[in-house]
Amino acid sequence: MRKAVLSVAVALIVTLAATFLLATSAAARPLSQLALTGIEPGTLVSQTGGTLSIYGSGFTTATVARLVGFGLLETTYVNSTALTAVVPPGIPVGTYDLQVSEDSISATLPAALTIIAATPVPGPTPIPTLEPTPVPGRPILTIRNYSVEPSRVAVGREFVVTIEIYNTGSRAGENTMVTFPGGTFLPVGETGHLLWQLHINHTAVVTQVMRVPTGLASGSYNLQVNLSANDWEGNHYEYPETIAVEVIGVGHGRPQLVIEAAQTEPAVLGPGDAFSLTLRLANRGDRTATDVLAGAASADLAVPAGGSNVVAVDRIGIDRVVTATLPLVLGEVTQAGRLNLDIALDYSDYNGGSYSARQSVGLEVSTALADRPQLLVAGYRTAPDPLAPGDTFTLTLEVSNVGGGEARRLILTLGGEGGSGLAPFAPLHSGNVKFVPRLDAGGTVEVVQQLVVDGSADPGAYSLPVALAFDDARGTRHDDSQLISLLVRRRPHLQIGFYRPVEVAVVGVPFELPAEVTNIGRTLVNVSTLEVTSTQLEISEGSLYLGPLDGGTSGSLEAMAVAHEGGTAEVVVTVHYLDDFDQPQVVTETLTVEVEEPPEAEQADQEQEEEGFWDKVLRFLRGLLGLGS
Predict the structure, then answer these.
(1) Strand segments (E) across 267-336
(2) In the chain, which end has fewer C-beta atoms inside a 10 angstrom radius, N or C?
(3) What is the DSSP code string of 373-412?
């Protein structure tokens, strides 16, 4: 019972410590790229340990896993979303938080792993033994040395503080952390530094960039530094410290720059347009602004048209106004209307003060296609259709300009940029890139490409990316990517015929049509029925369900036929099957059968022919004698 209470207490202390560290870390630095989503298994036996599968995102080969309250685990990198970690035997029973980290970035999954004791084998009652008294002690952290660069810092400027942390205690510090909470000075960048384990009589060096706020008077000010660590039992200790920083003040007052007006040329901008932004900068403070720098700070909205995105102004006196012009290019934005462009202002004064501000100006953006090209793959076709592995075919693309402006220097790339998405198709007789000099607004052009299907391609629907790159009338380059789909079906290789010769067929006498289909290919054909038809013969029992045929197998049908006239009769053998898309298809083969007249019919015809001849002779003689014809 005492062990159970102790385990619960340890788990509670570990959880509270982890919660405190998480809260401190979350408040002190921005969200990291590491994330934990789960582990498998969630329970291990203390006596045997085991291997954990850790899932999340942002993992690298430098990522390590750790059980909070125990220490680091032997970690193996699998990929960016998976790690494995070995939990050694002998870890005390309890519930542990799991933490992954890399440098100063970490992520924690609370109550991720439960360590339980193995089910004891019934045996003799053990003799009670006294629990050993834990060795007293704790980690004690202190700042042994520190330095500030520069040693005397002007207001508004940044400085670097370097501190040396020393463990003077009798236990190693676990989860040792150094944080700079701010206060008089403003931290720049990450404010928390995780040192993991700091052994007895060992040191660690931490550096932090800070900024002196404006308006601070000259003097010595304390910089707050918080040190914290756990011991191996999960007990948490805090050691707040301060170091002195000497500040050079600037007295009272400061320059204050504001953007009083801004305009663009042209006034209405389109995606990709080059434009000039003119700013009207006014100093509404009570000191002269020197070393003024103004620049566009929204890289996703506007980029420099040439050189830098920053313009420099020598100085701006009190209540004076100057103008500055920035040459920019609008990005490929999709949103129209009034968009905000951030402008960064950095300036100083004659007393060494440094200031920075960020303000916004509005840009009028139109994404209408009234004067810009917009290309679409309006249609496409292949010859032959459908396609089969090994086929050589012609792909014809119909590209239409549905915009209001002319497209120039069109580059069409099959397979996307670099042709990486072209498989299982390959260009034939030319490359996969086609060039069209110009395409007027509302116009359509056909782009023809010879291709071949890989002979080992599996049947299916293949998406073929088509990359389009073109210029508008202003010379701005536009890029687009579209998809078309090509269907590849496997053609069955069937041999159709009579599996034995058809005997001489006689009019009116039933005879057999022994039709057979053989799969001479290597893959199964999903045949449904075999059918025999003819427009010259009366056929019965002319349809039979066969079912799928493996390569090298066959199916046959014996239909009965009756001919009503002599001559050559055509027999159509039709094989019905399902293709790779479960669509019904047919293969037909036309066979011929010779049909003879019966002997009696031939003799009657001959007599009729002879009788008709003498009748004609008799009528002729009667006509000569004037007795009538």
Answers:
(1) 268-269, 274-283, 289-296, 302-304, 310-316, 321-330
(2) N
(3) --EEEEEEEEESSSB-TT-EEEEEEEEEE-SSS-EEEEEE
Q: For domain 2-116, give the fold.
A: Immunoglobulin-like (2.60.40)
Looking at residue 365, what is its pLDDT? 85
Distance of CA 199 to the CA centre of its chain: 44
Q: What percent of the chain has pLDDT over 70?
A: 86
CA 391, 395, 399: angle at the middle one, nearest 5?
165
Cα 414 to Cα 419: distance, rounded to the nearest angstrom? 6
According to the per-residue pLDDT averaged within each range, which of 125-139, 261-275, 404-418 is highest? 404-418
Residues 141-248, CATH architecture: Sandwich (2.60)
Q: Which residues contact 130 (CB under 8 A, 6 or more apart)?
A: none
Residue 335 pLDDT greater than 80, yes or no: no
The residue that leads in pLDDT, 547 or 617, is: 547
CATH topology of domain 375-488: Immunoglobulin-like (2.60.40)
Domain boundaries defined on the chain: 2-116, 141-248, 257-365, 375-488, 494-597, 601-629
CA distance linking residue 83 with residue 346, whole number of Å: 45
Distance, CA of 399 to CA of 378 (rounded, Å):
6
Adjacency order of strands within the sheet including 94-102:
43-45, 105-116, 94-102, 64-67, 71-72
Q: Quickly state the pLDDT bin for 379 (edges 50, 70, 90).
A: very high
